Amino acid sequence: MSTKNQTTLTTLSYAVLIGLTVATYQIGETQAHSLDISLLVFAIAIFKGGMISEQFMQLRFVKGIWRWPILIWLILLSIVIYTAFTP
Amino acid sequence: MKYTSQMVAKPYFIAAIGLFIGQILFGVIMGMQYVVGDFLFPEIPFNVARMVHTNLLIVWLLFGFMGAAYYMVPDEAETELHSPFLAKLMFWIFLVAGALTILGYLLVPYATLAEITMNDLLPTMGREFLEQPTITKIGIVIVALAFLYNIGMTILKGRKTVINLVLLIGLVGLAVFFLFSFYNPDNIVLDKMFWWFVVHLWVEGVWELILGSLLAYVLIKTTGVDREVIEKWLYVIIAMALITGLIGTGHHFFWIGTPGYWQWWGSIFSALEPIPFFMMTIFAFNMVNKRRRQHPNKPAVLWALGTAVMAFLGAGVWGFLHTLSFVNYYTHGTQITAAHGHMAFYGAYVMIVLAIISYAMPMLNGRKAANSQLSQIVEMWSFWLMTISMVFITLFLTGAGIVQVYLQRMSDAPLPFMVVQDKIELFYWLREGAGIIFLIGLIVYVASFFVGRDQPEVELPK
Amino acid sequence: MLYATGFFFNIGNEKLTKVMKYPPGDLAIWIFIMAELLVFGLFFASYAVTRIDNIELFEFYQQSLDRRAALWNTLALISSSYFVVQAVLAINRARQQQAFIFMLLALLMGLVFMAIKTQEFAHHIDQGITLSTNTFYMFYLSMAFFHYLHVALGLIVLAVLANNIRKGCYSQHDYNGLESGASYWHMVDLVWIILFPLVYVM
User: Fold this and answer.
1) Mutate which: C31, C43, C133, C138, vs B, most B CBs within 10 A
2) Which residue in C has a C-alpha nearest to residue B233's C-alpha?
3) C88 by DSSP, 3-state: which?
4) For B364-383, what is each residue's pLDDT tens digit?
5) pLDDT per residue over B38-89, tens digit each?
6) Which of B17, B13, B10, B1 is nearest to B386 (CA)?
7) Which CATH number does B1-160 carry?
8) DSSP C155
9) Across the interface, which of A9, A46, A63 has its CB nearest the CB of C21?
């Protein structure tokens, strides 16, 4: 991928990350949120994490075993958090 | 052997082995006392045998580390040792001080020893592993400072390799943390906390740097793998050791009266302490697999690989088994602890010292690179005898520990300590049996230095 | 969600080419990154599991945290990471001056985080809150402070990287050290991205 496209994609990712962050904050401000909203908030966080690892850390250009550890970490965390937060 | 001053390592290694023999003799005595309570009483009461056993362990390992440094550092720095005379002088001071201390433990009541060594001027006696009279401790500090000065000056004037620097940091850390043995707060909680600044920060801290650098050195020498590869591994390993081990000290702060957050900090960080040992195992086997040449000194490679594996098992796995606070709540201070302690010390520190002795001694004895075929075979036999018997000692103590924890702490009707000790007697007999075999292994090890002396050394075709 | 992801990661007509065998930067730093993620992951998991038996306590004291400050902190760190990526891309295009400016911006954003976080901690200290106040605060302070230390280290790393760029240490063809430092910083950002919603919002 050309560096120019990389730059564009990075900036777009940044915009999305900012947007999702503000959204998360706003949800937090509503005070009365249900379990589903909480899990949605965490799912958003995991998605953001994936963007950091794939785009910012450039791991999506890595072929082979080194691409996956962070993504697996995100998935494992999701499982633990989901299980812990769900009664 | 490129530098004649490396020869000063030899007396250190010989003293180390001699004291090792003493340590094991007293270990076997104690093993017997577990099952025949008044064995050698009152001449050698259990608590005295224990002091001798544990103190000898530490002192012989220190002799081993110092000998290793005197051998390795001139070679790595590519220059002669700064002062061979100082090294020899310190050897005798350390040996005599150590011998007198052990004799003190054996010949006079401990309270008398405290009196005649003027402990009340600066009280430091009475704590586990730190039973030495204050004057002995001061002697150790002097010896350590002279040693660090000697090694430091050598490194300063020569090549500063990563191995040298990591070793030096580890040794400086060893000396610095020993100073905490002089700090004896009245508050029992603080007293116990700072005691661990010596013990934990030694064996789960700076000693791991020493272990890493010694292992890296032996591997570079025996495999011929690129120095840069080995150095990078070494950095990562010690970084892991420090990241996990420093706050991991908290796994000793669960029950001594410190705040509750230590249960979390100690559990989380110490749970990761096996990582550097796991990496050392991968590192060692990787290097040997990738080796550029076959080294004629086979026992040295065997000890090096064995160290990584046994350290991982004993320190890493057995340590992990009882490091989480909710497990430790039940297993604290039981035979589980003893099982871990024995395999961890043997795997991590005994074996690496034996590895470096195995590598260096042939050359200190005038060989080019290795001993004779017969000597190597005998040494490798001793490796297996000691290592396998240690595994069994650990397994038997683990068995004893599991029964002990269950009967004494977990069952619906917990039984008193001595009642439970009676019930696990069989494990202690088995342990003693394994201990005797360990002693035999040690005798075979010593024999390996004497057999095949006149035979030609093993040389591999180029 | 999956469609959006797919769209996102395959933007434009260019095919994604997986070209690297190893991640950018020194492999050693990636081992370090994994280890750090492991520690933080254990903290997060412990937090979540402990919360199960303490839901009221956690939800109550969660309200006492400054969510607005945390928002600014998150925005600052993400921006900082963004600038770091831009710096790396600039070096790749041999735009040394641009890279230097981006790195300074990254450093600035990092300092913003430190300033806000320091103020937050000062406020807690003023209120007499310590690790022993309650279980929620024990976790919050432990994780936030541990992260804070990593931000501090990261700022030193960024400063060194900025200085190196200024000295011309990195070329279009060799910027391994830059990528190593950048990867570490992204890890610090990644941890906070999880910490913020988990502790301040959920």
Assistant:
1) C31
2) C28
3) helix
4) 999 999 999 999 999 999 99
5) 999 999 999 999 999 999 999 999 999 999 999 999 999 999 999 999 999 9
6) B17
7) 1.20.120
8) H
9) A63
Indicate whether B283 pLDDT > 50: yes
d(CA C128, CA B76): 53
Where do the domains of chain A lie?
3-85
C131 touches chain B (CB under 8 A): yes
Evaluated on CA atoms B290, B296, B299, B300, the torsion sign reads negative
Q: Which CATH architecture has domain C28-201?
A: Up-down Bundle (1.20)
Chain B residues touching residue C139 (CB < 8 angstroms): 264
Residue B198 burial (CB count, 10 A):
20
Q: CA B158 to CA B162: how far, in whole Å?
A: 13
pLDDT, residue B293, reads 87
pTM, two decimals, is: 0.93
Measure CB to CB from residue A73 to each of C37, C70, C78 and give the nearest one. C37
Q: Mean pLDDT, to the nearest integer, of A30-47?
A: 89
Partners of residue A62 on adjacent β-strands = C20
Q: How many CB atoms lie within 10 A of CB B242?
A: 19
Residue spans of the domains in chain B: they are 1-160
CA distance B126 to chain C (A): 32
CB atoms within 10 A of CB C96: 18
Q: Partners of B130 in the beta sheet?
A: B127
Which residues does chain C have within 8 Å of residue B240's beta carbon, measured at their own beta carbons? 31, 35
Name the least confident of B108-117, C13-22, C81-90.
C13-22
A74 CA: distance to closest CA in chain C (Å): 9
Concatenating the DSSP letter of every residue in B288-336 gives HHT-SS--S-HHHHHHHHHHHHHHIIIIIIHHHHTTSHHHHHHHTTSHH
ipTM score for this prediction? 0.94
Which helix (H) or strand (E) is C139 found in, with range?
A: helix C135-166
Helix ranges (H only) for B365-424 are 373-405, 417-423
> What are the sequence ranges of the domains in chain C?
28-201
- Chain C's closest residue to A75, CA to CA, is C41
Q: Best residue in B162, B238, B261 to probe C by mutation, most C CBs within 10 Å?
A: B261
Among C11, C51, C194, the residue with its CB nearest the CB of A77 is C194
Chain A, 19 to 58: residues with Cβ < 8 Å from chain C are 21-22, 24-25, 27-29, 31, 38, 41-42, 44-58
